[in-house]
């Protein structure tokens, strides 16, 4: 009775009805619920029985009992009252919901805005088994606080939990001061620097070093977009001069060697200041090998491949149909076949640690801005909805990775790096009830006709595979079941991420050892 009443306030979205108009209608109609009002998280009791519960550290057949939006117990044969919803997961995997470390929802790109806002992008994520994402706040005119305010507004209609990274678009004393406020007062513990986008976002090595130093002092993780911006600019000019104006020019203008150069340079500068470093969207074998080398030497470097880099190759950019080719344009570019398999191997070997998407959804109308010049094609591909399925199929179904390692790279490691584990990234008593049930014997098929993001295209069009997310539970609510989404605008919570995560453990001792090893200044006799 109570349950039925609460369900009536939920916005139902069926797969077919979810287009731009359907979802924005809900937002524009101002349908929002206070935390207490949306209710299900505080009142719904759920028991998942008989499934294989997978955590990064072990997998075990057990029941999972959820109450008040958190996991109350994980053990065999839990007995419950009649008012509890029971889900039978026999023969299926019960896993922590995915955490996507790299998304761009509602972002302004060139002179347009991504077609997925926080609400539609998150709804799509939930349908694909992702229950939290970390989005990049873009400063407004260089002001971090103005940027944060703008993103807080964008995120008001959130239907799943989210956190923020902050992008640094220029460097000065104000920015440095504001970084401290972001970390100490606003729950942000990571900052991204651009080594590419000359004349816009790119910062030089001097400022990168300043940024690294500041991050280290705050216990915040420095992230880099690693491409040599000067060389990319030169490469673009070269292609235009050769009359290559189509999407293949995007591929040709920024080869893997430029990604490897910047990755290596960023890593060496981070080593010089003994600062932990996170390399976003590792797209090439070349860049991955820079990371492998640094990690072998003991440096604290995290490498994040994204789904497009793991399962696609550059053939799409060469498609004779412009709309098809343009949808694959993102930076660094999707590489030639071979890089994908090398990145998969690096992920299975632990050289790369977690998988993101760089979800930045643009439709064919927006991509067509660059019909005569690939430099004007807004960059970005989808993935927030597809990541969990594609990584399962490419890594687990193929035999390259265990279910536990899958949980690690899609959820747990992200939670650990950004210092919110085990509230997120685990199915343990006390963890948030963000859980998926995956049927390994079911299959999935991806197509723009049935996906939940707002775009009319999908870079994974036609992909099929084994392993289907049948149920998604977010914050203790069943939001995806029987192919139907039930999401509540405003029910997603902002997750504050505290500084000094595990990557900072012991840094002070290492620095002290370094200082004592200098054996300097040398004592000299006065003449
Ligand atoms: C999936 O297949 C395996 C192996 O045949 C079986 O053990 C398991 O119970 C099946 N699960 C479901 C949900 O059908
Ligand atoms: C950005 O800052 C410049 C000066 O620093 C100012 O002239 C301009 O009006 C600002 N733009 C916006 C949109 O606030
Ligand atoms: C490159 O990608 C296309 C499209 O997904 C695929 O058909 C092709 O097999 C891939 N090529 C190689 C060599 O993997
Ligand atoms: C793409 O999005 C823009 C802006 O939201 C919209 O005006 C346009 O009609 C969309 N195009 C397609 C093909 O859906
Ligand atoms: C954005 O710029 C492109 C050219 O780069 C132009 O074709 C398009 O109409 C512009 N869109 C808007 C909404 O101004
Ligand atoms: Zn990105």
Explain how this protein is built.
- The protein is α/β, with parallel strands linked by helices and 527 residues long.
- The protein has one domain: TIM Barrel, CATH 3.20.20.140.
- The strands form 3 sheets. Strands 1, 2, 3, 4, 5, 6, 16, 17, 18 and 19 form a 10-stranded mixed sheet that branches. Strands 7-10-11-12-13-14-15 form a 7-stranded parallel sheet. Strands 8-9 form a two-stranded antiparallel sheet.
- It is globular.
- The N terminus is likely disordered.
- One 2-acetamido-2-deoxy-beta-D-glucopyranose binds next to helix 16.
- One 2-acetamido-2-deoxy-beta-D-glucopyranose binds next to strand 16.
- Homotetramer.
- This is dihydropyrimidinase.
Defining key terms:
alpha/beta; TIM Barrel; 527 residues; binds 2-acetamido-2-deoxy-beta-D-glucopyranose; 20% strand; ten-stranded mixed beta sheet; 35% helix; binds zinc ion; seven-stranded parallel beta sheet
Concise summary:
The chain has helices at 2-7, 20-28, 35-38, 40-43, 118-127, 144-154, 173-186, 205-218, 229-241, 247-253, 256-272, 285-296, 307-311, 322-326, 339-349, 364-367, 387-397, 403-417, 507-517; strands at 11-14, 46-54, 59-67, 70-75, 85-88, 93-96, 98-103, 108-109, 112-113, 130-137, 161-167, 190-194, 221-225, 277-279, 301-303, 435-445, 464-474, 477-481, 484-487.
């Amino acid at each position: 009775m109570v349950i039925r009443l609460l369900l009536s306030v939920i916005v139902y979205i069926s797969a077919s009805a979810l287009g731009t108009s359907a979802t924005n209608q809900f937002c524009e109609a101002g349908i929002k619920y206070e935390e207490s009002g949306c209710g299900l998280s505080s009142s719904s009791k759920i028991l998942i029985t008989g499934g294989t519960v997978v955590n990064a550290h072990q997998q075990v057949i057990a029941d999972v009992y959820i109450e008040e939006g958190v996991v109350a117990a994980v053990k065999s044969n839990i007995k419950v009252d009649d008012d509890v919803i029971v889900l039978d997961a026999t023969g299926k995997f019960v896993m922590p919901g995915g955490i996507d470390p790299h998304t761009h929802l509602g972002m302004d790109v060139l002179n347009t805005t991504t077609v997925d806002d926080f609400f539609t992008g998150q709804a799509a994520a939930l349908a694909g088994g992702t229950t939290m994402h970390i989005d990049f706040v873009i400063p407004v005119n260089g002001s971090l606080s103005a940027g944060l305010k703008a993103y807080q507004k964008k995120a008001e209609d959130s239907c799943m939990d989210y956190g923020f990274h902050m992008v640094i678009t220029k460097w000065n004393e104000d920015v440095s001061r504001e970084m401290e406020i972001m970390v100490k007062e606003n729950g942000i513990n990571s900052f991204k620097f651009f080594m590419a986008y000359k004349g816009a976002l790119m910062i030089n090595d001097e400022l990168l070093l300043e940024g690294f130093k500041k991050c280290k002092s705050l216990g915040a993780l420095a992230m880099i977009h690693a491409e040599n911006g000067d060389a990319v600019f030169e490469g673009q000019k070269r292609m235009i001069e050769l009359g290559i104006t189509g999407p293949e020019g995007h591929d040709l203008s920024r080869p893997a060697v430029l990604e490897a150069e910047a990755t290596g340079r960023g890593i060496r500068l981070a080593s010089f200041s003994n600062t932990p470093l996170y390399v976003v969207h590792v797209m090439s074998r070349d860049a991955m090998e820079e990371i492998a080398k640094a990690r072998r030497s003991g440096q604290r470097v995290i490498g994040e491949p994204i789904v497009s880099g793991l399962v696609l190759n550059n053939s799409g950019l060469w498609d004779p149909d412009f709309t098809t080719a343009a949808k694959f344009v993102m930076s660094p570019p999707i590489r030639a076949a071979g890089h994908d398999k090398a990145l998969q191997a690096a992920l299975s070997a632990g050289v790369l640690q977690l998988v993101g998407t760089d979800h930045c959804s643009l439709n064919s109308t927006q991509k067509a801005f660059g019909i005569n010049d690939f430099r004007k094609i807004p960059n970005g591909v989808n993935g927030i909805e597809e990541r969990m399925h594609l990584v399962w199929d490419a890594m687990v179904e193929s035999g390259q990775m265990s279910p536990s390692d899958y949980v690690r790279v899609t959820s747990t490691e992200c939670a650990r790096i950004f210092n919110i584990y085990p509230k997120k990234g685990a199915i343990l008593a006390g963890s948030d009830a963000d859980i998926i049930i995956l049927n390994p014997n079911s299959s999935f098929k991806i197509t723009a006709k049935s996906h939940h993001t707002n775009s009319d295209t999908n870079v994974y069009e036609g992909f099929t595979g084994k392993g289907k997310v049948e149920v998604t539970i977010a914050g203790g609510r069943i939001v995806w079941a029987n192919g139907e989404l039930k999401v509540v605008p405003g029910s997603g919570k902002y997750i504050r991420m505290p500084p000094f995560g595990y990557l900072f453990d012991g840094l002070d001792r290492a620095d002290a050892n370094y200082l004592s090893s200098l054996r300097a200044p040398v004592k000299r006799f006065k003449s």
